[in-house]
Amino acid sequence: MIRSLIAAFLLATAPALAQGEFPPQENREAWGLAIVDVETTGLEAGHHEMIDLGAIYTDLDGNELGRFFIRIHPDHPERATEFVRSINGFDEERWTGLGALSEADAVERFLAFHAEASGGRTMLFTAYNAWFDRNFLDALLQQHGESFRDHFTYFLLDLPSLAWGAGIPDMMNADVAGALGLEAETSDPLEHTGLSGAEWNLALYRALQARIAAQAGREGQD
Prior knowledge:
The chain has helices at residues 2-13, 82-88, 92-97, 103-118, 130-143, 159-165, 173-179, 194-221; strands at 31-40, 50-58, 64-71, 122-127, 156-158. The protein is α/β, with parallel strands linked by helices. A 5-stranded mixed beta sheet has the order 3-2-1-4-5. β4 (122-127), α5 (130-143) and β5 (156-158) form a beta-alpha-beta unit. It is globular, with a radius of gyration of 18 Å.
């Protein structure tokens, strides 16, 4: 019943949303993954702001379609907490030296990348803490007359949930990485960026897909 209601809702709203044909596995060429990681000045979207954005777009098999990275000058740098500065290395003068752009310019460039890299595919927003990244991106887009729902499908792909379903019931990224034989994401604040996070997310997705395929193969032999 619930599945039917969701399908009816998506069908009714398809003209207004970025929405491809369901199910994705039967329409693979119409779908892609927007693997995203953002760095911010804090934890509260709408009050704190994004200071960089990394994205790697892929098909459903994890084959890369394009990548994007940009640093952003927040409108309110004074809201940046010391804790997040210690994680992502944010500093106003450093950001200027690294070529950070205004929020408006960042939105324009990201949407241009999105249009080109998606190539007409419906993009499924994919991240390690998907709601966190989604909410910050949506807040930035809405400040500049855009909306997350205009460019991405209704659903989110949350990587810890995918890992849980693959038999790794952990939440911390280092623990999930260890279970898959991967290195943890860098903790060096000078190297820790949205792009390094997106690259790590993609490596995690590929490792999880391989694990799921191996599990399915073993089950088929039983």
